[in-house]
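Hello again,

I reread your note about wanting to compare the complex against the isolated chains. To keep things tidy I'm splitting this into two emails, and this first one only covers the full assembly. Below are the input lines as submitted, including protein chains and any nucleic acid or small-molecule components. They are followed by the predicted structure of everything together. The single-chain runs will come separately.
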Amino acid sequence: MSETGLVVCAGVLLLATVFGLVRAARDGRLRRRRSGDEVRLSAAELGAQLGESVTLVQFSTSFCQPCRGTRRLLGDVAAATPGVVHVEIDAEVRLDLARQLHVLRTPTVLVLDRGGRVVRRASGPAGRAEVLSAVAEAAGGSAADAAHAAHAAHPGE
Amino acid sequence: MQIDPRGPRFSAVLTTLVLAASLITGSGALLAAQTVVFAIGAVVGLRYSPYGWLYRRLVRPRLGPPGELEDERPPRFAQAVGFGFGAVGTVGYLAGPTWLGTAACALALAAAFLNGAFGYCLGCEVYLLAARTRAGLSHE
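Full-complex prediction:
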């Protein structure tokens, strides 16, 4: 019987419980990007056309288990909502983009408005209600965003 | 290889109990046994580890078939990480210094507990980070 071991064991279990609870509460929450650190993605960077109103970008890896559920959910939302497109990116293939966007885990979900601006972001599997409200919010972008979208779609002009 | 995801979860619970017992008793022999279990899981697969066998014999017959299967690679990768910590800890307990045994065992316990209690798979989480780091190093 080691007294130090007992104390360390209790401490580890306590800390891990706190970490697990905090993480479970934050996991998959679609959080708003702070204004000021604006990030935009173009069709060229994504390797896919942006949606007319909203693009749901999902970073996955080939053997990420929760990515499957997220793929189904975002695919459903895109199929049911006109102007919404789901783009899934293999983070291992596009390590450049993963690094640029600081993607640390999969699935990471980005909600882009029509101009390709990242308006919300979640790491971990996002919930349906939250995705739907984020899509509605991003679809209500301003006319300035639409103008930017036209530019982003044809960057040469 | 696709496996029943409840198998690794069950193994994580047993691993948590064994690691907690190793830490409390400071037993290098117990940690060594757990390290062997980690090695089997990493090298030949979780299904062949003693915990996987127990799951199939005792637990799975009482549960329904799994709703979804998962890839075996992330939990196997996690077993390999566990083996690393277990091996360092065993050396610490048996050859000294003891604090090394305590520290390595504590880290392995944290990972196993998070997996068992919350389904948080550390090996799966760091997999992308490892891939990013590898690619970053090969660019330089």
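For quick reference: The two ends of chain B are 34 Å apart (CA to CA).

B.
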